[in-house]
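Chain entry —
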Amino acid sequence: MSTQDVMPVPVPVPPVKLTLVPENGALTGNNGRYEKYLPDLKGLYRDTEAFEALLADDDGKPVYWVESSRTEDGPGGLITGVSVLEPGKVGDEYFMTRGHLHAQADRSELYVGLAGHGVMLLETLDGQSKAIEIKPGEAVYVPGHWVHRSVNVGSERLVTLFCYASDAGQDYQIIERAGGMKELVVDEAGRWTTRPNPGHGGYRA
């Protein structure tokens, strides 16, 4: 056998240890973090007057943030992190993340509840819609081709652990192009429920 026939031995990356700190909304050992502030969420909520009133009293703290660990690129790698969403409402809509569909739309994602009480709102491009509660010790598997966002329907921070393929990417604009998600998660007599979003015009990939 010639040296040209010898398969190269892959050089593995070193293992990474991560520590979850749900009470602080932190992931120690992370190598990435981003934050979203109230002004960043302009246009996300239906009640614009309520949003402007909230913005006038904004304390400048982030509404939600993500701490993540990305070690390997490509379809074999995983991005792992924690998503932290503060409690609150704009009008009768609960605080929520922007939501997204993966740019590689067939990529799935796993969310595990660590703290708080949330709802994963999931929708397909052809009009299916699901709202699944997530609490500590509960997990939601989001298959590929589902638009998804986290909603905090409780009175405490919603903290979730997530994991998805490194090459998945995110399309955040797909919801904006549709005029918002098909369903809204709202407070009705002190309990969460969903109702149709009158501004939703259908998803366009």
Notes: The mean pLDDT is 95.
